[in-house]
Amino acid sequence: MIDLYTFSTPNGWKASVMLEELGLAYETHVVDITAGDQKRPEFLRINPNGRIPAIVDRDAGDLAVFESGAILLYLADKTRKLIPQDLAGRTRAISWLMFQMGGVGPMMGQANVFYRYFPTKIPEAIERYQKESRRLLEVLDRRLGESANLAGHEYGLADIANFCWARTYEWSGVSIDGLDHLERWLTEIEARPAVARGLAVPTTLEMPTEDEDEQRFVEQARGMLVGGDD
Q: 180 to each of 125, 137, 140, 212, how far by Cα in Å?
């Protein structure tokens, strides 16, 4: 059994989608990052950095794993699934995983901060992060024009990691017009039953459509800036 400590964010979804795709038994523990749960001593014992997601593998002597990329790699290695077993394939998968960890996630996250959450709008910052997010999505699109999935023919952890962020492009204020390969890939992954289940953990998060709902959502999200996920 695995304990999953998470919240409804792209990084949180990465862990829950991976667990659902692998069919592993897990118990969800909600870490409300808008309330500061991630800074409580009991959670800091699991992740000293105070970010979600984190897991504890009870079957491995209560081994704690934190950082979403590390969680995906751990689960893939534990099950020998969703990552190629040959060195070249594994290296490609890890490269695209790190592309998300070092690029797509941070840049789209900053786009969200400056475009949606900061009360003072800084046009130069908004433009910088939206342009870089678009550039990174273009990199994904070019790769997906060469290959059905990021690491090759088989769907795996690199697709899960990048999908969970790329699917939120509208919230970042980024267009994917003309990125047909990316759109195809997003649609295919969105249709996977395990992905749908993982995206509903710990709760289904719908982006607001009305001005009043959006304002409430943004105000709540500002609380995450104090803590946030990884």
A: 27, 11, 11, 33
